[in-house]
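Researcher: We're teaching a course module on how sequence relates to structure. For the next exercise, students receive a sequence and then see the predicted structure as tokens, so they can try to spot secondary structure elements on their own. Here is the exercise chain.
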Amino acid sequence: MVEYSRHLDAVFHALADPTRRAMLGHLAERELTIGELATPFHMSFAGASKHVRVLENAGLVKRTIRGRTHLCRLEAARLAEANAWLRRYERFWNAKLDALEALLLEEDKAKAKKVKE
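Model: And here is the predicted structure for the students to work with:
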């Protein structure tokens, strides 16, 4: 259980940064080099490499080194673990959203009734 918690902590830490989330989005499309990952953010290879290292430590990215090229690919299994953890709480969100929807519908009905009167 402690190991599972460490994995989740690392995943959520990695996902907390918008640059890393965007990098994962790009990697969901295809494998990319670190240079290609850095380009949209106008950051150095070293800066992008630090982000990739955090993603690697979380188990979200696998880096393969071919000569001087660092090729990165998405490893989605840890994302699935995080999604499973979040889904445990989905019923609470849905209940709150259902209650909000009911409240808003009642307000709309009350406003419509006032307009008719």
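Model: If you want an answer key for the exercise: Residues 82 and 88 are 10 Å apart (CA to CA). The two ends are 61 Å apart (CA to CA).
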